């Protein structure tokens, strides 16, 4: 038996505006992050975290990038809120909101160098780590995608949204598995590379949802 799709109400003007905000903030985040790879090549992307760009001469760009990522997360949440109808979707929204708070905290507090011993952690570095650990955007993406795909206007995006969400979850799991138990990082630990795959999957999902939200707003 084919499950009947739920008809969705048109997105509000406010939701449409935030859809555009999510697209531009997400795209600018990617641009800043790519620029930092070129401006600060001393941070080996295979094992150094993107957070460490805040330690260099262009640290302000990393702070701004974190702010843009949080803005994209919040904007997507506002965009899709009118179309969330399930408990699963609301749980996803809460997780996305917590993730945005975590990214803001990570952006405010500068990380410690990855080479520093856990015993030498500073207050700022510890707060940054707490903020980073609150980011469960992949899980939010999966729950929200499952909820949105029940609606007729989001059904065409089902395969794309779920695929990106699953890639993000796999990247998150692999990233966690890369973290050494003793907290000692080095070139042999590819946490930086998988962390970049994770953040790329996250921002791709946010932009894809934002683009489709903007299309729905424009088609009213």
Q: pLDDT average, as an integer?
A: 92
Number of helices: 7
How can the largest sheet be summarized? none
Give the low-pLDDT segments: none
Q: What is the terminal-to-terminal distance? A: 31 Å
Shape: elongated
Count of structural domains: 1
Any overview of this molecule?
With 220 residues, the chain is mainly α. It has one domain. The protein contains 7 helices and no strands. The radius of gyration is 18 Å and the shape is elongated. The model has no long low-confidence stretch (mean pLDDT 92).
Summarize it.
The chain contains seven helices and no strands. It has 220 residues and is mainly α. It has one domain (13-218).
Task: Throw out a few tags for this protein.
220 residues, mainly alpha, 7 helices, 65% helix
Write the layout of secondary structure elements.
Elements: H1 13-39, H2 59-80, H3 87-108, H4 123-133, H5 137-148, H6 158-178, H7 191-218
Helix pairs in contact: 1-2, 1-7, 2-3, 2-7, 3-4, 3-5, 5-6, 6-7
